[in-house]
TrEMBL record:
<dbReference type="Pfam" id="PF00728">
    <property type="entry name" value="Glyco_hydro_20"/>
</dbReference>
<dbReference type="InterPro" id="IPR017853">
    <property type="entry name" value="GH"/>
</dbReference>
<keyword id="KW-0378">Hydrolase</keyword>
<comment type="similarity">
    <text>Belongs to the glycosyl hydrolase 20 family.</text>
</comment>
<keyword id="KW-0732">Signal</keyword>
<dbReference type="InterPro" id="IPR025705">
    <property type="entry name" value="Beta_hexosaminidase_sua/sub"/>
</dbReference>
<feature type="signal peptide">
    <location>
        <begin position="1"/>
        <end position="18"/>
    </location>
</feature>
<protein>
    <recommendedName>
        <fullName>beta-N-acetylhexosaminidase</fullName>
        <ecNumber>3.2.1.52</ecNumber>
    </recommendedName>
</protein>
<feature type="domain" description="Glycoside hydrolase family 20 catalytic">
    <location>
        <begin position="65"/>
        <end position="287"/>
    </location>
</feature>
<dbReference type="InterPro" id="IPR015883">
    <property type="entry name" value="Glyco_hydro_20_cat"/>
</dbReference>
Amino acid sequence: MKKIAFLFMLCLGGVIQAQPLDSIMPVRGLAIVAPSSKSLDRFIKFMENELTANNVNTLVLRVDWKYQYKSYPKLADKDGLTTEEVKKLVAAAKRSNIELIPQINLLGHQSWASTTYALLKEYPQFDETPHVTMPEKYEWPNPDGLYCKSYCPLHPDVHKVVFDLVDEIMEVFEAKTFHAGMDEVFYIGDDKCPRCKGKDKAELFAGEVTTIRNHLAQKGRKLWIWGDRLLDGSNTGLGMWEASMNNTHRAVDMIPKDVVICDWHYERADPTAAYLAMKGLSVITCPWNKPEPAKKQVAQTIALRENGSKVLKERYLGMMHTVWSGADGFLDKYYELKEKGTSEDGQANCFKAMFSAINSQSK
């Protein structure tokens, strides 16, 4: 059998070589909250040692308000990163050949639990649902359908503020790509909003994506977003979290085709990347905290790239692991698992499983 396998590998007088990772999986990413000032050096060490060892080439940092903005200082967290600290991250990324992509959550995720975030706190007039008050004790589900607040995409002043922040963060990060979040948008086109009521929710969502994309394109920059609002939660059975139950899914046919979709599924390897690619969009598949689905997603992505048409295969850009805890908590668990060599579900172990599966393809 070994002899047959060897002969099979001979092709036109030469042995077929393993493909480079950039061909197998062009994007090999990690999405995580930006580190705090006190943990910056530790995080940079993680970038230079662990991310490079795992062949990570893309790092999305959720900055949001964790930067000392000069354009709108009142929106910045008091312990947010300084310009000098961000430049340390930029330099580390360059040394490690990692593309650094900043993220600010736009449209949705303007609050969490009982806390209203900086934008709506400072500019309450931007709130899509000002009649929904923040509870002292948050519970889900609730009568208001409150998960996270959204800003009104049709407010005449919101983009002046938002785009100043985006431009500033893109400059300091020296970035070519921006991640706008835009996941889990439950409040959009509210019946009590004087600007949005009665409007098509899919058109509102697509309009906001397009507005952000067009602003970035003026300086040759690209837009990434999460993909759940572009999937039909009812017909697919994916439900209201991983897909849309408020009719935004039709926006998939309305947004510019150069917007990159980060398609997240955490419980199963749902093959929605194929659907999004057939809609003309480039896709990055994203797991979270379960190793087995993540390994299946790796195999699925590789299979789609290997077996797709020349047009479709190029739209499957790769994979990005997502972390939804603080950076310090993730690093604590990562190094604990590395030291003990244990295997269990969880973000750190899923990261290890995903990149082990990816890196094994080039050996």
